[in-house]
């Protein structure tokens, strides 16, 4: 990237074949002398939305600084390195959080180990990169006492409290308000599609696991959706169109939200999957449309449950699974509670936690 001036009042950025003129207000917003910007918070002391008709009266480059005089009388030296960083950091972050799709041949599932000062370490940076690449990580050796999961979540970012509390205990119990709290098998699902907004990231920490069953399962929903798009485009299309309602009820609350089983972003890329057949209610659409929808749901369900896409492993005490609830589906196999205890603790955090930590560690280590 190169910066050049024209006629002493225009600033251009050259990147590869592209030439871009930097808008005078864009530059004026980046004035950072101490009378314009609070040094502690890096927040502006002026309101750029009130600036009108700003022009550049004069600009020079000295020692990698843009020496500018604006038409409102403000003079500033803007660091060219900072402008370059701003261009590069978005591209860099986007490349870091781009998913790499996987299927059942994925190996090296338990790849991180908890240690002192973990949350500020280079290991944490590697963990977050791996989380964004695969949609999950497993960390072993996480202390199993004192609801450590709350501490863990709050050390990455902030826990997302729900009506289940700050965290929830996953064990077989009498009169459960969710089938997770039984010993029944749970087919691959995304959690809580009935919440507004749906929690981004789920943590599950294994405290005890004495049973021979109760294996954890994971599927890459983006990988399945991509496959469906190639093999059954008409099924893919209907699942990106029909809005399904999801509902949770217990004695205290009725929670509802709706959305498509495959959600696309503005570039038509899959950015969220929903799948929870214990709680989904498709509207009564016309019969032909529902025929296609039900066939499509059958097919995607078959794929989510297929050995081609599923990985299966046992969580041992101290293992903590952190997974992207917009991308991955998770489940477990059945277990027999007469064999011993199986006890996990779970909670949610949102992407601002993982992304905020990632940006912080990049600033620290790179
Ligand atoms: O028991 C498990 O391994 C998973 C339970 C579950 O799906 C959940 O807590 O969200
Ligand atoms: Fe779940």
Please give a handful of descriptors for the protein shown.
single chain, 366 residues, NE0471 N-terminal domain-like, Double-stranded beta-helix, 2 domains, 6-stranded mixed beta sheet, 4-stranded antiparallel beta sheet, 26% helix, 30% strand, binds 2-oxoglutaric acid
Description:
Helices cover 26% and strands 30% of the residues. It is of the alpha+beta class. It has 2 domains: 95 residues, NE0471 N-terminal domain-like (2-Layer Sandwich); 256 residues, 4-Layer Sandwich (Double-stranded beta-helix), CATH 3.60.130.10. The strands form 6 sheets. Strands 7-8-19-11-21-9 form a 6-stranded mixed β-sheet. A 4-stranded antiparallel β-sheet has the order 10-20-12-18. A 3-stranded antiparallel β-sheet has the order 1-2-3, with no helix packed on it. α3 crosses α8. The site of 2-oxoglutaric acid has 9 residues, from β20 and β21. Fe (ii) ion binds next to loops.
Strand order of the largest sheet: 7-8-19-11-21-9
Integer average pLDDT: 96
Number of individual domains: 2
CATH superfamily of the largest domain: Clavaminate synthase-like
Please tally the β strands and state the result. Answer: 21
**Class by helix and strand content?**
alpha+beta
Ligand types: 2-oxoglutaric acid, fe (ii) ion
């Amino acid at each position: 990237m190169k910066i050049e001036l024209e006629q002493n009042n225009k600033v251009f950025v050259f990147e590869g074949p592209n030439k871009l003129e930097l808008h005078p207000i864009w530059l004026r917003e980046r004035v950072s002398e101490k009378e314009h910007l609070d040094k502690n918070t890096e927040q502006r002391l002026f309101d750029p939305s009130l600036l009108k008709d700003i022009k550049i009266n004069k600009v020079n480059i000295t020692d990698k600084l843009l020496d500018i005089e604006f038409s409102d009388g403000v003079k500033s030296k803007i660091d060219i390195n900072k402008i370059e960083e701003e261009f590069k950091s978005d591209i860099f972050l986007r490349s870091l959080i781009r998913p790499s799709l996987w299927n059942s041949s994925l190996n090296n599932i338990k790849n991180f180990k908890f240690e002192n000062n973990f949350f500020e370490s280079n290991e944490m940076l590697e963990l977050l990169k791996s989380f964004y690449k695969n949609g999950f990580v497993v960390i072993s050796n996480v202390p199993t006492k004192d609801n450590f999961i709350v501490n863990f979540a709050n050390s990455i970012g902030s826990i997302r409290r729900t009506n289940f509390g700050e965290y929830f205990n996953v064990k077989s119990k009498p009169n459960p308000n969710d089938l997770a709290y039984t010993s029944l098998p749970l087919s691959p699902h995304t959690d809580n599609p009935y919440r507004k907004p749906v929690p981004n990231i789920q943590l599950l920490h294994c405290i005890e696991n004495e049973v021979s069953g109760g294996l954890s399962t994971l599927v890459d929903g983006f990988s399945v959706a991509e496959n469906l798009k190639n093999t059954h485009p008409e099924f893919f299309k209907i699942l990106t169109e029909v809005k399904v309602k999801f509902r949770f009820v217990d004695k205290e609350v009725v929670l509802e939200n709706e959305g498509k089983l495959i959600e696309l972003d503005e570039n038509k890329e899959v950015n969220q999957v929903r799948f929870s057949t214990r709680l989904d209610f498709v509207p009564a659409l016309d019969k032909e449309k529902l025929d296609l929808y039900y066939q499509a749901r059958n097919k995607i369900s078959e794929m989510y449950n297929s050995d081609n896409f599923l990985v299966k492993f046992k969580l041992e005490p101290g293992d903590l699974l952190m997974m992207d609830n917009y991308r991955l589906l998770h489940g477990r196999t059945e277990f027999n509670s007469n064999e011993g205890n199986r006890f996990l603790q779970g909670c949610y955090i949102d992407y601002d936690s993982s992304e905020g930590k990632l940006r912080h560690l990049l600033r620290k280590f790179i």
